[in-house]
Write a structure and sequence with these properties.
Oligomer: heterodimer
Order of helices and strands of chain B: HHHHHHHHHHHHHHHH
Radius of gyration of chain A: 28 Å
Distance between the termini of chain A: 98 Å
Helix content of chain B: 55-70%
Strand content of chain A: 15-25%
CATH topology of one domain in chain A: Jelly Rolls
Largest sheet of chain B: none
Largest interface: A-B, 21 and 16 residues
CATH architecture of one domain in chain A: Sandwich
Shape of chain B: globular
Number of strands of chain A: 15
Number of helices of chain B: 16
Shape of chain A: globular
Structural class of chain B: mainly alpha
Structural class of chain A: alpha/beta
Largest sheet of chain A: 6 strands, antiparallel
Distance between the termini of chain B: 16 Å
Helix content of chain A: 25-40%
CATH superfamily of one domain in chain A: Galactose-binding domain-like
Number of domains of chain B: 2
CATH class of one domain in chain A: Mainly Beta
Strand content of chain B: under 5%
Radius of gyration of chain B: 22 Å
Chain lengths: ~500, ~375
């Protein structure tokens, strides 16, 4: 009896010690660990701190842009343009999926202002190679500390690797197994019933060039499309279904409006590389998800076929990374779906299809052009910042724009900006660079000091440039100041107007 | 294995083949050999119960990386009836706690720095590379010692006593003593079954030297069929012989003056540690090219600037371990802690527990000896 008494005392002592540990850890060490291992907590906290009402959960599809995009902002930022009176926030983490979003959403305090949650629904995240991705270990590790348990317990889980931790080789075994064992059911007779066989056959047969030789690059891509999209969602086994179901249940519990934003896939390429069978799987999966979650009361924004091949940033891989035009289309679709929750707040201030011909950058950092790293607060014509060139910083902020996004029948460009210099500089030029595979490359440089050469004061530089006749054969136009000297030249308030 | 599987028509990728290789193969092979030899020599009665024999070979706490047990110790215990004993339970938990601290707080935290240096030695200053060697010496010790301590602790909880695999090896005054304190179960295995069979030291001096070299090179080969391991074993054998010969030829004796003797001992401890640390380069390097790079970096990179920064807490933990290891000279954590007053004991347990939970490395470093 005495022995048991001692055991009970020791157990109680241990419990007391652990309670104290939790206090000490929370007070002195937890925050540092959070910042080091789960920095996503800052985005979650921002949602509460900024009293956001609508939040967007996304991965790289939200934020990736193309180099020639003028507006390089994320889809979520573009959606927020339509609801200027509502507070928008976003929680973004690369390679995330519904399981990760669920943990983020759970971490949002119940007393937050969130009313509407837009969750990225990426079709590929249901595929074995994403479910068993080698990024999963890092993702799961980053969630441990933000889970809804006492901080000390979470740290214990992190220390003892109490999360889904597997080596890359183990993950590879998992998805390869799934590719072989998950059977595919085709509408018409088809020689292969699993991804492994189909992929092998494609690799053997290959995509052929016109001369009959094998196009290795296209073949690799076709195989990749098969491995990525050839699956049929099993609503019982697929873990993503459970994750999205959990999100639906959580939204109901918290009384949130829930929107699933089904991302566009490159259907054109899937069809041209592999064929209708693959597209049929993609659409079948889309139909299943739309039907399942519509029935559960979720608003589904179906963007699956919205975006054409040209608007996909990655032409040699399967991603949901879109050009500015593509992101705008999706933002428009999502904002339309939000009208039912916020009918009075919608403002059609950006039309997704409208082609603009006037561009202006005040160098304050809010409008993203190329070479934003040149912005400095050393001196400014308006506001607080300007773009600094010279002394190994050869380029000013740069308008890089896709010509197909410009209106038709343009004849010239009118460029103006403010410049400041302390010494005469005969090498700094305004450059208009036009390029494209069906266009003879043009690099037109005009010496800035031939137009305006005042020293120690801001001075306006103006230039008109007639566009070449075959301008529309080109793909990209870039306009910037090029200053490969050691003499400083500051540029501010750059304006570019394409004129008819 | 890869060639064999192809021969039988199984085209598994290499990592799958590696995956299906039995874990701890070299350890339980040696444990089985030990049984066979002891039975053959008549020192051990043959075990006729297949279950007990299997348990002896695959006894889970020490299955993966030892200690390599002898039938006279473990097999006998497996036949005994065991009951829960609080003293064993407490002693076992103490060992597990200390083992976890050694592995998770010390070995895994310094592994980051050792990996950094071994990953690209030429990018670092000579001093940083030397620090990297120093860290690796402690990483491998704390990693392997940690595992062994946990294994001994797990067995102890169930009432089984396993042999100690380490006894403060870095406090050895010579290479010979180092091998009496490092991976004891392996070195005694080689001593009993190979060295003695070759005649041990009851032979002419040149034959004795050959015997020593044979067991050290074999010990290297046991770790893997790689030249680095062979040379690692050879280097230990070489220094063992050189030290023994110097002591014999110069007829060195411990000084009668206690102060002088202590200074000489301290010098010998440092000397042995430095030699062992340099020989670890061969053990850690992936191939001889990397060995050359590390030695080159030590000699040439005196003026190279680098950003090798070690977090102060890492030094602090290492210092704490060195202090604890010194206190534990020729004893074991469970019995040492048990002899302390309850307040000291529980304060120490609390500290170790807190360090394990809060300061363990979040990176995944499998036990180094898992690969053997």
């Amino acid at each position: 009896m005495e022995k048991y008494k001692t055991l009970i005392y020791k157990f109680l002592l241990l419990a007391g010690i652990i309670f104290c540990f939790n206090f000490i850890y929370t007070k002195f060490f937890f925050e540092k660990d959070l910042q080091k291992h789960s920095p996503i907590i800052n985005s979650i906290r921002k949602v509460t701190d900024e009293k956001n009402e609508i939040i967007y959960l996304g991965e790289s599809s939200n934020t990736t842009f193309r180099e020639d995009d003028v507006d390089k902002r994320s889809i979520s930022d573009m959606i927020s343009d339509y609801y200027p009176s509502r507070k928008f926030g976003n929680i973004n983490k690369e390679a995330s999926h519904a399981g990760i979003y669920y943990t983020f959403l759970e971490a949002i305090p119940e007393n937050s202002n969130v009313k509407t949650v837009i969750v990225t629904l990426n079709l590929r995240s249901f595929d074995a190679s994403w479910i068993y991705s080698d990024l999963e270990t890092a993702l799961q590790k980053s969630l441990v500390l933000i889970k809804d348990h006492p901080p000390l317990f979470n740290r214990l889980m992190l220390s003892f690797k109490g999360y889904d931790i597997k080596s890359d080789a183990e993950r590879e075994v998992q998805f390869k197994k799934s590719w072989t064992e998950s059977k595919l059911t085709f509408e018409h007779p088809f020689p292969y019933d699993n991804v492994t066989d189909w992929d092998f056959a494609m690799a053997e047969k290959g995509i052929l060039n016109e001369d009959g030789s094998k196009n290795s690059e296209a073949t690799v891509l076709a195989c990749h499309y098969i491995k990525t999209y050839a699956f049929q969602i099993d609503t019982i086994q697929n873990p993503r279904i459970k994750d999205f179901d959990n999100i639906v249940a959580l939204a109901k519990k918290r009384n949130w409006n829930l929107v699933f934003n089904l991302m566009a896939e490159n259907i054109d390429k899937a069809e041209s590389l592999v064929g209708n069978e693959l597209v049929s799987f993609i659409k079948q999966n889309r139909d299943l998800l739309v039907s399942r979650y519509s029935k559960k009361g979720v608003t589904i924004v179906d963007n699956l076929t919205l975006i054409g091949n040209d608007e996909f940033v990655d032409q040699n891989w399967t991603t949901e990374h879109y050009s500015e035009f593509g992101r705008r289309l999706i933002a428009k679709n999502v904002s339309d779906s939000l009208k039912k929750f916020y009918p009075k707040d919608y403002k059609d201030y950006v039309s997704a299809n409208k082609k603009i011909s006037s561009f202006y950058n005040d160098c304050e950092g809010e409008i993203v052009w190329g070479q934003m790293q040149t912005l400095t607060d050393e001196i400014a014509y308006s506001g607080k910042m300007s773009s600094k060139t010279g002394q190994k910083q050869d380029y000013s902020i740069s308008l890089d724009y896709s010509i197909r996004n410009l209106p038709d029948s343009l004849k010239s460009i009118s460029i103006s900006f403010q410049k400041f210099q302390r010494e005469i500089n005969n090498d700094a030029k305004i450059v208009i660079q036009i390029s494209g595979s069906r266009f003879k490359y043009q690099w037109n440089g005009f010496i800035v000091n031939d137009i305006a050469k005042s020293l120690n004061k801001w001075e306006e530089v103006k230039l008109n440039f007639p566009l070449p006749d075959d301008f529309y054969n080109a793909s990209v136009i870039k306009i910037y100041v090029f200053n490969p000297t050691n003499l400083l030249m500051y540029v501010d308030d750059m304006k570019v107007d394409f004129e008819k | 294995m890869l060639a064999l599987s192809h021969r039988f028509g199984f085209y598994y990728p290499e990592h799958t083949i590696k995956f299906i290789l039995p874990i701890g193969l070299s350890f339980h092979t040696f444990q089985s050999l030990s049984y066979v030899i002891e039975v053959y020599k008549g020192n051990q009665k043959a075990e006729k119960h297949f279950g007990i024999y299997s348990l002896y070979v695959m006894f889970y706490p020490q299955l993966v990386t030892g200690p390599i047990e002898r039938p006279q110790n473990l097999l006998v215990q497996l036949r005994q009836e065991k009951h829960f004993e609080y003293a064993n339970f407490a002693a076992g938990l103490r060992l597990i706690l200390f083992g976890l601290f050694t592995k998770m707080v010390i070995a895994d935290n310094i592994a980051i720095y050792a990996d950094q240096i071994y990953g690209d030695p030429m990018a670092y200053n000579s001093i940083s590379v030397l620090k990297g060697l120093f860290f690796y010496s402690f990483q491998i010790y704390c990693d392997f010692f940690g595992y062994s301590t946990i294994a001994v602790g797990c067995a102890k909880v169930m009432g089984y006593n396993l042999m100690d695999n380490f006894k403060n090896p870095y406090l050895s005054k010579s290479i010979g003593e180092f091998w009496q304190r490092w991976h004891i179960s392996l070195s005694t295995w080689f001593r009993d079954y190979v060295y003695f069979s070759l005649g041990g030291n009851r032979v002419k001096i040149h034959r004795w030297m050959i015997n020593i070299m044979i067991i050290f090179v074999l010990s290297g080969l046991w770790h893997g069929a790689n030249w680095t391991f062979v040379i690692w074993g050879f280097a230990h054998g070489f220094f063992y012989i050189v030290e023994t010969m110097i002591i014999r030829m110069l007829k060195l004796r411990r000084s009668a003056n206690e102060t002088i003797a202590k200074i000489v001992d301290a010098f010998n401890v440092v000397k042995t540690f430095i030699i062992v640390s340099f020989i670890w380069i061969l053990f850690r390097a992936s191939d001889m090219h990397q060995v050359k790079l590390i030695l080159k970096a030590i000699v040439r990179n005196i003026h190279v600037k680098d950003d090798f920064h070690v977090e102060p807490k890492t030094w602090l933990f290492l210092l704490l371990f060195i202090i604890l290891d010194s206190f534990l000279f020729n004893t074991r954590f469970d019995s040492w802690a048990n002899a302390k007053p309850v307040v000291v004991r529980w304060s120490l347990y609390s500290l170790l527990l807190f360090l394990i939970i809060v300061f363990s490395s979040v990176n995944n470093f499998p036990f180094i000896y898992f690969q053997f």
